[in-house]
Write a structure and sequence with these properties.
Layout (H helix, E strand, L loop, with lengths): L2 H16 L3 H15 L3 H13 L3 H14 L4 H13 L3 H14 L3 H17 L2
Helix pairs in contact: 1-2, 1-3, 2-3, 3-4, 4-5, 5-6, 6-7
Length: 125
């Protein structure tokens, strides 16, 4: 695949994900992964597609890969936290979301932290 073709496929996968068609996005990403699996942006998009198709373990692995490339990626920490939350791993989720909210103190991240804290409090964990 040419560089131009890789970029085009990546953009198409982004569009499909925005249209809530994660399985199609994953299919379009396959050739991109052959040539650019080591790119954080590719792993992040892959993780999001896995997340939205409820392939949570795969999403977790993709987000962890992004964090291997860049431990300061606050968005990767947030979506990793959300992924862990959907798996019922609330304490792990809270740790990631807390880090994300500390790194990037915006209302959406603070709300996510408040939500996870409420879930933990209700379950008595």
């Amino acid at each position: 695949m040419t560089t131009e073709g890789t970029v085009e496929a990546f953009r198409r996968a982004e569009e499909l994900l925005a249209q809530r068609r994660p399985l199609e996005a994953l299919h379009v990403l396959e050739p991109v992964l052959d040539v650019a699996a080591d790119k954080p942006s590719v792993q992040l998009l892959l993780g999001r597609a896995y997340y939205f198709s409820a392939q949570l373990r795969r999403a977790e692995r993709a987000f962890l890969r992004v964090l291997e490339f860049d431990p300061s990626d606050h968005y990767a920490r947030l979506v990793l936290g959300r992924t862990l939350q959907r798996q019922g791993r609330l304490n792990e989720a809270r740790a990631q979301i807390r880090l994300a909210a500390t790194m990037h103190p915006v209302p959406a991240y603070q709300e996510a932290l408040g939500e996870i804290n409420a879930h933990i409090a209700t379950r008595g964990i």
